[in-house]
Design brief:
Keywords: Membrane, Transmembrane, Transmembrane helix. InterPro entries: DUF6049. Pfam families: DUF6049. The protein has 877 residues and is an alpha+beta fold. Among the domains are: 183 residues, Sandwich (Immunoglobulin-like); 236 residues, no CATH class; 64 residues; 98 residues, Immunoglobulins (Immunoglobulin-like, Sandwich), CATH 2.60.40.10.
Length: 877
Amino acid sequence: MTPTTRRRAWAARPPRLPVLLTAPLLAVLVTSGVGAEPVGASVGTSPDSDSDSDRDGNGDGDAGLRILLDEVDPVVARPGQPVTLRGRLVNEGPDVSRLNLITVAAAMGPLTSRADVAGWVEGTDPRSASWVLGDDALGAVIPPGGQDEFEVTVPGSSLQFLPATPAMLGVELVASAEEETDRVPVPDGPAPAVLRTVLTTTGQPSVDVPLETTWLVPLTLPPDAELSSPDDTEHTAAWLAAVGQDSSVRQWLEHLTVPEVTWWVDPAALVAHQPAEALVVPGPEEDAEPTAPPAVSEPPEPTGPDDKTDETDESGQTGTPTPPEDMDRETAEPVTAQPTGTGPSAPSVPGRPDGDNDSDGDDDNDGEDSTASPEDGTDTGPAPAPPPETGPTSEPGPNPEPDPEPEPETLEEALAQLRLMLAEVDPQLLWWLPTDDPDLGLLVTETDAVPTAVADDLLTRLPEQAPPAVVQLLRQGRQNVAWPALAAPTASDVAAISDLYARTREGGLRAVLVPRESFTADSTAPPRLGAVPLGDSPDVVAIGADSWTSGLVAASGSDAEEHGAGAAAQRLLAHTLGTWLEAPASPRTLVIAPPRGAEVPAEVLDQLSEGWARAQWLSPVSAQEVLDRAEDADPVGLSGIAPEEEVLGPLSDLVVPSASPVLTSRARDLVRLQEDLDGLSQILRDTDALRSWEPVLDAQWSTRWRQDEDVWVSTWRTLRHEVASTRDAVYLLPSSVNFLADQGVIHLTVVNDLPVAVENVQLRLRPSNGRLQVTGQPDPVDVGPGSRASVPFQARSITRGETVLHVRITAPDGTPLGEDAEVNVRVQPTGVWIYWVLGGLAGLVLVLGLRRALTSSSRRTAYPGSSPAPGSEERPQ
């Protein structure tokens, strides 16, 4: 931030209250009824104003110049006591802004309703701020991108005419460039910057019938894909942002100190689950090449005085010699202070006698370095001369070590701190959402796409690898309460949620949070009952959250950024005061339930907590007490009316849940993806990595994705890619087969490209025609990591020709692996022709044998004188 050039501020003049305005103002404040009817103006609309003032609304008279009110001290003012307003002037424009005066003024009549507060802050109230409360002379020149602080103290005399009953003033801060001589109570003409805010006051110790307030604060995870990142750096950074000391969860717990706050917690925030790098990772026994431990080399031993590795000084200390940074630099002796008789001790310069610090009596510096005694004004002499260029050297003194910076909080420390803070909460003020906050509105509206088993599993699962301390913590508090993300829940929706809880929660559903419009059918109706039993579900009590107030809490983060934390806190307190002023004698309960993901700055929460303690018109009660009292109330039916946008304006976008990214088709895809994971777990020998991704898939049903659909799509694509790549890594090797038999065995080859072994892989074969018949399906096959295996099966030839064998590889439950393959088979059955061939071959052998026999007989006839064979008998002729 660019620093500002601030001139000397003028002496602040006491704020002037015109004498002619004093009596009318007192009459207006006293006669204004606190029970006035609310103005019939909507929150989000801005009708045309009849005021001629250019300062209506929180606008910038000079482009880019804004007033931010950071703090009001005390948060709730008291009549006759001073109030201090602190803030900043921020110049976001391209030009330098000169501001000399900031004025705090108030409207003459008090605000008496919620609509009055909204109209004043948003600039639709035509009244002007003519009652000057205080001012501050700035004298600031703010460059582009710079800022300057201001502080205006409203004296107690300016607030002495306020009534003792709770009241609120419309306040306007105006920054102008007027000179001191031109200062008037309210500057005329356009102002460089204007901020409209409110100021709440109360003067009595208590009220007869305060407004009961109940806080229900959700503590859930943000829609961040890196919460499930396998990368350690991304995973740690995302979780520290979600549950660390600067997270929204910790801000709520540490800074909202209003009594009786009920915390509605997602158990998944207590365990930072991280999946493996992939669905399949190799185990240590399956590594192809185990790495050998690194060789350890010993340092060479010194063999002589020249081989020393360390230098030893005279004191016996050893160390590695370090050359000086500047060889020509000489160190002077330290300057020591010597006592003198005329004043403070003067430093003694080395090389001179003690006390003789004058060089030659001349003062070449015109007295700039001389020091005068504060008591008698005597001169103690010129300042010491600089040390000489040369002289004896000495070791420099030890430099003071800077304070070590605090170590950043680790993820384990952040989780431990969060668990500790929740363990210290009263169990009656601790409510639990199902793990990962599954979208109940989706589960009950997409019953055709979401099987009952999937919905039941989402509501019964615990955080993955939850430590015993977390399991013990989850046994405290309530779990039979539901917060569906439905803008206008109907009786059938609540009945479906009740049936779901009856199957998964002990005791079923006992309470459900709904918008208050479900009771009143009107966003402008004042609150009355905080909870009522439902006529269609007698065992269920509905808690009605006030959409207007809850929306203001959710918007206080952006409001604080634009107008300051003090302005945001005052707006909320004034809204509650306006609610009480609309019916101060009627007992009512205001339920405040900020939507999931609402981020409120710590400064706003601190001032809200202080204001709640000082606001006599507010009385905190717990949600459990509201539920207990609702059992005696008359049952009502749900109206089915959502918060009205024409009444709430931009706040409706905060309190009305966005559409779920899980449409019907995506819900079916999630179910199929879960089935694929179950199937892969049946064939993988090591399923630890795969099981680590199942919580990531379960989290895809979470309500938090309504806040950011794009992040849901990113996580979904990652999951789908991991599952698809694992399935496709087990496939059939393409081949062609010539089958030349009536019946025989055919071999196929299954390939496993995964780094782990697979088991019980099934092959299902189906010929495309009747030329080949598969007489026996293959047995399940096991394939090692990065290997292939031959799979035999029995087949029979029916007729000659070609056929296509359709092969499908699956897990035992039918989950497909790889892609369906086709094997071309050329069938050549043996048939009758084989016998003709064999007969022909036999006849040929017979003919060849006869021919050989005849040839042998002819040879014996051609040689009659040959001797007969031994043992033969000679026959007579």
